[in-house]
Amino acid sequence: MSMLDYSEITVRKYIVYEGEPYEVMENHIFRMQQRKPQNKTKIKNLLTGRISDVTFHAADKVEEAEITTREAKFLYSSKGEWWFCDPTNPGKRFKISEELLGVKSKFLLPNEIYDLQVYIAPDTDEADGIIFDIKLPATVDLEVMEAPPGIKGDTARGGGKQIVLKGGLVVTAPLFVNVGDVVKVNTDTGEYRERINK
Length: 198
What we know:
Layout: E1 3-5, E2 14-17, E3 20-30, E4 38-45, E5 51-57, E6 61-64, E7 66-78, E8 81-86, E9 89-97, H1 98-101, E10 113-120, E11 130-135, E12 139-146, E13 160-165, E14 170-174, E15 182-186, E16 192-196
Antiparallel strand pairs: 1-6, 2-3, 2-6, 3-4, 4-5, 7-8, 7-10, 8-9, 10-11, 12-13, 12-15, 13-14, 15-16
């Protein structure tokens, strides 16, 4: 495990702070008159999602967290549990809670392979790593399951309507989008991008 000086605790670094893994969301190194420099940071706990403001001083060192990526195939969801398997060994199944996945759960498609981010705690085996995030592509194509009919001249709502996509995501789309269409959605914002010609 490598150690980071206070000045190396920068945005997008993963660190171990008070025994738990964090991602550095923001950092600002500054020096007050007659004092040693400090690194003011905003860090996010990878296991709980809690954000903390922490100031590191020139004498401080922290351990860099060991983060690895693991591929997993999404199988199905049931009762708030999302089941995955090892792509090379379908019998090796495991679940991820809806709480951990959050809104990302609505973008998952059965039999697709996704990258999971895994924290390897000190003195543990990689197989015992803790999954804390799932990486999604920038956009996904989802089928429209529910859509009210578009009425010509209906501009009172800005020319859009609420549609329900496979997976349960609700987005605002143009009036011409209908049930059975496939649409491209931005996974960061959850916004409709375009209709895909089938």
